[in-house]
Amino acid sequence: MALIFLSLALPLISSLPTSLSDTLTKCPRITCSEPLGDDVCFLHSSDNPVSWIKLQSCPPGKLCPSPLASFTTHSQSILAANDPLKSPTFQRLTKATCETTYNRNLLPGRKCTSNFQCQSFVCEEQKCKGYSSGASCYKHEQCDIGLACISKGAFPYATTCDSLRKIGDQCEEDVECQQTSVCWYQTRGDFYQSKKSCIVKYGLSDNQTFGWAPKHYETYQDVLYNGRLCQSGFAVPYYDSNDTRPLGLCTTFTNVYTDQGNFTMNQAAQCMVSNLASYCQYHYTTPTGIENVVKIRCACPADGSIGYCPLPSIEAMRKYSLYDYALSGNGTNCHTLDRNSELAQSDCGIGLTSSLLESYLNAKVLIEQWPLAQNERVRKCLEDKRPESYKGIVLASVAGSEAQWILVRMVISVVIISALLI
Ligand SMILES: *[C@@H]1O[C@H](CO)[C@@H](O)[C@H](O)[C@H]1NC(C)=O
Ligand SMILES: *[C@@H]1O[C@H](CO)[C@@H](O)[C@H](O)[C@H]1NC(C)=O
Ligand SMILES: *[C@@H]1O[C@H](CO)[C@@H](O)[C@H](O)[C@H]1NC(C)=O
Ligand SMILES: *[C@@H]1O[C@H](CO)[C@@H](O)[C@H](O)[C@H]1NC(C)=O
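^ thats the input. predicted complex w/ 2-acetamido-2-deoxy-beta-D-glucopyranose below
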């Protein structure tokens, strides 16, 4: 699902002469309270640097479609490029209208009332059903829950629906592994041999290593992506020898040093985003006891302040990884491709009655949008109005009056809780 990046323009920059401001990073403005018109859930200014993004909730039974246009601090500084893939608006919606897509084209495991709702066109006992183990297949979507379309691994590489790979088994991609594990390089040697295996999420403690690989070719994102293997949630590329490839080192950063000062990892570290050379220096200690640093570009804020370092606090990451792991563990009745679909998890996974899904979704805002979420108003807006918000999912997953009733119950429980607090 597209990440939505939202923030306020820097007032300082707009008052600078154009020639000078063009050399600085600008940040977009967010609005969450403006009426956008019936059924419009997303509007994006369609320019670059992006000047504004606006959000609105969908009515009951409807969901905001993806992929939505976005921005990154880096893309804000691109004024022209020959590669459309560098644009945050290429092949993405800049205006989105709420759709009733939630009950069509469902993967195996999802609740259904008619065959036509399922990708497989088989609805049995009110659940979409896919092929059983051993059946010939050409894509994961065809296989039932707990299965993926996997090749036997030797010529002629026939693919059949087979049970998800266990920890330590070889794999090509995450969806072949059980839902609490990811497909990655166990060692640097594995990286050289392009050999990935299923590794449990958040399993390695600080100072443990694995095979680092770039995924997004952007340090901030790769620290988090490789960090999926670590208890701390953070990994750094670690050059332990004269080998040209780094190891992935699980670590807990000790502090972050910026052009605005020295911050602890439990603070929101400030930095000057308008300055293209403003970097956040995240400090860590190597297993050999040496102080080392990983540099990450300062990111756009949403509160008109100067900018924030992008990595979340240790505490925010700790909560997120706990919720994420529990959600995955409760998702085994969902299709392997639905592991990252919160809407699916609300149906075949943990469900809407547990508070886990809401806790997870709110923790995710902090992990993915740490700099923007430092502003209370923007954090609330992202929690409530982005398409995959808990409220959005509650409204989308149950039709009409039923959704209203759940919302009424949510309001009643809030009133009761507040009454108890008084
Ligand atoms: C560095 O490379 C040299 C040869 O180029 C090798 O002899 C040496 O063992 C390497 N050092 C480490 C620490 O890997
Ligand atoms: C930043 O603070 C940490 C402790 O919080 C300290 O160990 C470190 O030396 C400080 N760095 C600088 C450059 O002041
Ligand atoms: C990691 O290694 C450093 C340096 O040897 C050591 O100070 C630190 O306690 C280790 N951390 C853990 C969690 O073992
Ligand atoms: C399912 O979620 C609950 C929290 O709601 C958690 O305590 C439990 O460990 C999860 N189950 C698995 C198998 O992860």
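The pocket of 2-acetamido-2-deoxy-beta-D-glucopyranose (ligand 4) is lined by residues 326, 329-330, 350, 354, 356 (CB under 6 Å).
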